[in-house]
Structure formats: structure tokens, C-alpha cells
């Protein structure tokens, strides 16, 4: 790439351009010259902003971009996304604001509830809660809760309904969190505890669960909701082509 060349890019939906990260020059001086020329070209063309995704292998380019007015938008393990306005007040959508988690209410035919006590907790005092955890990228709620229950307890379960959720702010790294509670039925009974994350795992009589001072009011309430509410169940809606990308829950 010659220093006077414009960096390869494509338009975005907000009147800006997205720089092709696969074609970024490795040489810092070459990138600095190309970026300066490109910013003039894009501004003259009426573009409103520029997105610059810098891979870890090109991390030396980050200070150059920052000096040119770019700021951090978000990052992943292998890249950081930077952005620069070319027009004052140009709209820049925020990055993801929430974590998503799931918990499973698993009640067997003996009216026993599958509970866990986490190994890594804020207090030395034990407390009991539902098995569950965070969704992985691209994972559906149903797949996540089945996976989490199996990983933590070794119990295979069947999804029945989504019964309630909690939304709160001030979770990890300043993000918010949504926790979905699902009613599940057990397909197996024997417990195989995930010792790395779980300190205890067993079937607790649900009446004992509601009376225990080692169970929070919130965890009691969501189990009560799972027992009393029909919840919402999976339903496919016509017009959406890819079930791998969408998940719908509707009243039965």
C-alpha cells in the first residue's frame, strides 16, 4: 500500500465507513500516513464516522489511531474496535450493555428441588440456589440452561417453560444483567457435582427449601413462581428464516 492510498473500507448503516481490518498495513508509519489521507477523503465524501477494528497482531497501530481522534468502543480477546466521528454529534450506537444468565428450577416426583452451593462466593457461609450460569456467545436460553444444569449437577433435564426474570444494574465491569428462570423436569436423578465451581449439590425437599435461612428471599420467590405460573413456552414465528438466530417464548 502506498502512503497516499485510502484505507480499504465499506459503508455502514449510520452514514460511516468500516475499515477493512484484514488490509491494515503492518508498518506504523505507513498506517499513519494512510489514515491521515483516508480521514480527509472520507470527510470530503460526507461520511459521518469511521469504525476501525484493530486486531491484536496490529496493536502497535492503536496509539496512532488514538492520536488521530479515535476512541475505544469495545474489545474482544483478539481485537479492539475504535471509532471516530467525522461530523460533530454523529450517532454512534453503544456496545452490548448486558450479561444474560439462566437458572433452572428442577423439581422431581418426590417434591425435591435440585440445589447447589457455589464454591466461589462472597461469604464463607453456605447458601443454596438454583443451578445455572451465563450464556455463551450465540447460545439460546434453552440450550444454555440445559447445559448449565448438566455441567454443574450431572442431571439431564427437559425444558418446560420460562417463568420469570430479574433485571439489575451494576453487575460485572459496570454492565447490567438479566437472569432468566426456567422450569425444568429431570430426566435423570444421580448427581455428579462440578467440583471446580460447586461446593455442594443435592436434592432438597422443596418445603425445606422454603423454610431454610440459607436460601435468599429472591431464590424462594423464583421457585414459587416456577411452581405457580404456567410461564411462557417456545414457539416459532413464521417469517424468520434461521432458528439458530432466533428464539421466541409465548403464553401457552
Give keywords.
21% helix, alpha+beta, 13 strands, single chain, 31% strand, four-stranded mixed β-sheet, five-stranded mixed β-sheet, 252 residues
What is the terminal-to-terminal distance?
60 Å
Query: Rg, please?
Result: 25 Å
Supply the number of helical segments: 5
The largest sheet has its strands arranged as: 1-2-3-5-4
**Helicity level:** 10-25%
Mean pLDDT: 95
Write the layout of secondary structure elements.
Elements: E1 9-11, E2 17-19, H1 28-44, E3 49-55, H2 62-67, E4 71-75, E5 79-85, E6 98-106, E7 112-118, E8 132-134, H3 141-153, E9 157-168, E10 176-186, E11 198-205, H4 206-211, H5 217-228, E12 233-234, E13 249-250
Parallel strand pairs: 2-3, 6-10
Antiparallel strand pairs: 1-2, 3-5, 4-5, 6-8, 7-11, 9-10, 12-13
Outline the structure in words.
By secondary structure, the chain is of the alpha+beta class. The chain has helices spanning 28-44, 62-67, 141-153, 206-211, 217-228, and strands spanning 9-11, 17-19, 49-55, 71-75, 79-85, 98-106, 112-118, 132-134, 157-168, 176-186, 198-205, 233-234, 249-250. The longest helix is centred in the N-terminal third of the chain and has 17 residues, at 28-44. The radius of gyration is 25 Å and the shape is elongated.
Concise overview:
21% of the residues lie in helices and 31% in strands.
